[in-house]
Amino acid sequence: MRAAYIEATGPVEAIQVGDLVMPEPGPGEVLVRVGASAFNPIDLYLRSGAVAMPLPFPYVVGCDVAGRVEKLGPGAARFRKGDRVWGSNQGLLGRQGTTAEFAAVAEDWLYLTPANVPDTDAAAMALTGITAHLGLFRSARLQAGELVYVSGGAGGVGSMVVQMAKAAGARVATTAGTQAKQELCRALGADLALNYKTDDVAARLAEFAPDGVDVWFETQREPDLETNVPLLRRRGRMVLMAGRTAHPSLPLGNFYTRDCSLLGFAMFNATVEEQKQAAADINRWATAGQLRAVVGRTFPLAEAPAAQRLLEENTLQGAGTLSGKVVVTIGPS
């Protein structure tokens, strides 16, 4: 089978596209004929070696997958051959990745794909959707009527947060770097979409939410807690899921005297059951048209290195040339 893989960690140039032996599904696994995979920042860190996890070399890059069940492994019973499925959490903690024509995946990490969602969109919503859901509902316990702020509402996780918060009955404020991205945020449901380059975000948020923000979902790698914490409401919750090397200053007096909370999490630490709960809501909202993927660019399998390069330029170098997800299309939906 054709696959995008590395034989050792390194720069984007370490990614090869070539032939590997087709995997055989083991006990409790299914073989997925991959229609699409998607790249996330964690894929950059694993490929470069910045995040140390066990990698089964040759290691196929990519965490997200959408496609059709091709074959059932021993004991696999949740799906039938031909079922359309999506999932994430691959390529992590010693599991093989997904940017290949076929992937052997434990059935517990897969979910049926709604009929109205193409594989490209299903892959794009996988890790980002589960991440947004875990942060909003498991960690921050978002309630209807509350006010949510998320930075980067046109991005992968940010666009999921905007839509999920609205689906749950919250008001949503967000930021973007261009007028086009602001308009996209509003189309996704944001009640307030600010331009972080030209607007005084703190002042505008204080006007929009004079009592403060209930749930602050921080997606930036260098959060400014000195500015952000005072914008929280009493008993406000701040969700942190980015910034591995960040060491922000925390205004402690302003934080603890108002019963605020800092909530950190990594999606890959969530249990099978926690991710299944997230997937059930993602499918329900997607079926109802309340949740859609924001796909910034698609690449064929042969151009997987270029796909990671684009994501790296925007994630690590701040190029600002991407809205939404980078997806690699591999086979038909």
Task: Spell out the key features of this protein.
333 residues; alpha/beta; six-stranded parallel sheet; 9 helices; 16 strands; 29% helix
Walk me through the structure.
The protein has 333 residues and is an alpha/beta fold. The protein is built from 9 helices and 16 strands. The protein has helices at residues 41-48, 119-139, 156-167, 179-188, 201-208, 225-228, 252-256, 272-287, 304-315; strands at residues 2-6, 16-19, 29-39, 59-60, 64-72, 84-87, 102-106, 110-112, 147-150, 171-176, 192-195, 213-218, 232-240, 261-264, 295-300, 325-329. Strands 3, 5, 6, 7, 8, 15 and 16 form a 7-stranded mixed sheet that branches. Strand 10, helix 4 (179-188) and strand 11 form a beta-alpha-beta unit. The longest helix has 21 residues, at 119-139.
Per-chain topology:
Layout: E1 2-6, E2 16-19, E3 29-39, H1 41-48, E4 59-60, E5 64-72, E6 84-87, E7 102-106, E8 110-112, H2 119-139, E9 147-150, H3 156-167, E10 171-176, H4 179-188, E11 192-195, H5 201-208, E12 213-218, H6 225-228, E13 232-240, H7 252-256, E14 261-264, H8 272-287, E15 295-300, H9 304-315, E16 325-329
Parallel strand pairs: 9-10, 9-12, 10-11, 12-13, 13-14, 15-16
Antiparallel strand pairs: 1-2, 1-4, 3-5, 3-7, 3-16, 5-6, 6-8
